[in-house]
């Protein structure tokens, strides 16, 4: 059976699908499909392509993957609310406060967090984010009009808020900005293909997939300098400044996940791994001395794949948690 973490994450992703439009805009896929995602209707697509601003109300727990203007108005004391924002891998998210009417002195708060937090676990992890944990929070009650726009460092962000007086609330405008070199991504979908590039930057980048998946790495370039590949004599990644690792676990924070495999040699070909964990992460560690690149594709495991072993694959992991 799915773990509590997987259920919560999938619930969040269902919110994501439902939040792409109001009820009149949603079309459910064939009932026989297992995929919980809903599709945007052609009506909404036409409205958005025409340049109209999308507007709707927020729920206490909500999910957004689309640009627009969003308003929350408390109809009763709301003590533990959060809105999750997610974009495409190559997008950053900007949240702008248009209007805020909360009682900061009375205990209300409105905070933006640069990333996601779920059950105390953060994405990106503290090891992979350029800011400290405290710097990743922007508290409206402390910053006020000084900082009305906040831009995320990756394709996910969130708002925490507590509003105790009915009638109080806020309005935000959400916009997306392109990110030339995406680093730290949560995938919106259970399958896809992605190329991660870290050009001469000392940073760590994680790509998170909240599904059991088959992941296949087709191209890996490490230690690229002036057109030459640096030869690495060691057979182990220990002490190597540039490498890729595959992680699996039952939480959101990559630093708390199990290391399943590491790669520190460039190759062109195919290396695949079946990972049955609730969350799968491909993480690239870069020393900043080189241009590093990895291309991979992934798809969610179906029941037959979880039961059958594939030749030329690394041993499966985490299947007891499914």
Structure characterization notes:
The chain has 322 residues and is mostly beta strands. The chain contains four helices and 25 strands. Strands 16, 18, 19, 22, 24 and 25 form a six-stranded mixed β-sheet that branches. A five-stranded mixed β-sheet has the order 3-5-14-7-12, with no helix packed on it. It has a five-stranded mixed β-sheet with strand order 4-6-13-8-11. A hairpin with a 2-residue loop joins strand 9 and strand 10. This is Corticotropin-releasing factor-binding protein. One of its GO terms (biological process) is cellular response to gonadotropin-releasing hormone.
Residue share in helix: under 10%
Shape: elongated
Number of strands: 25
Average pLDDT taken over every residue: 81
Specify Rg, calculated over alpha carbons. Answer: 21 Å
Q: In percent, how much strand structure appears in the residues?
A: over 45%
Largest sheet, in brief, is: 6 strands, mixed
Number of helices: 4
Keywords: Disulfide bond, Glycoprotein, Secreted, Signal
Function: Binds CRF and inactivates it. May prevent inappropriate pituitary-adrenal stimulation in pregnancy.
Main location: secreted
GO molecular function, one term: corticotropin-releasing hormone binding
């Amino acid at each position: 059976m799915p773990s509590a973490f997987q259920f919560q994450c999938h619930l969040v992703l269902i919110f994501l699908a439902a939040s792409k439009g109001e009820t009149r805009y949603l079309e459910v896929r064939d009932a026989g499909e297992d995929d919980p995602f809903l599709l945007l209707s052609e009506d909404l697509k036409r409205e958005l392509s025409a340049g109209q601003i999308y507007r709707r109300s927020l729920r206490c727990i909500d999910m957004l993957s689309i640009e627009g203007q969003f308003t929350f108005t408390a109809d009763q004391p709301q003590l533990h609310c959060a809105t999750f924002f997610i974009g495409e891998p190559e997008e950053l998210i900007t949240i702008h406060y248009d209007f805020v009417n909360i009682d900061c002195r009375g205990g209300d708060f409105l905070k933006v967090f640069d990333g996601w937090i779920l059950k105390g676990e953060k994405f990106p992890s503290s090891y992979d984010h350029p800011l400290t944990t405290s710097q990743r929070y922007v508290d409206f009650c402390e910053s006020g009009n000084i900082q009305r726009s906040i831009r995320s460092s990756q394709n996910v962000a969130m708002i925490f808020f507590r509003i105790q007086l009915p009638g109080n609330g806020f309005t935000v405008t959400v916009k997306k900005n392109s990110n030339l070199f995406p680093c730290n991504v949560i995938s919106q979908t259970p399958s896809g293909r992605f190329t991660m590039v870290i050009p001469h930057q000392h940073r760590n980048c994680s790509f998170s997939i909240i599904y059991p998946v088959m992941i296949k790495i087709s191209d890996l370039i490490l230690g690229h300098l002036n057109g030459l590949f640096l030869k690495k004599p060691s057979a182990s990644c220990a002490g190597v400044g540039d490498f890729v690792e595959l992680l699996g676990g039952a939480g959101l924070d990559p630093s708390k996940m199990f290391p399943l495999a590491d790669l520190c040699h460039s190759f062109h070909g195919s290396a695949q791994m079946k990972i049955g964990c609730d969350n799968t992460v491909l993480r690239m560690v870069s020393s900043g001395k080189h241009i590093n690149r990895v291309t991979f594709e992934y798809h969610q495991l179906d029941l037959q794949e979880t039961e059958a072993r594939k030749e030329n694959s690394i041993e499966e992991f985490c299947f007891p948690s499914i």
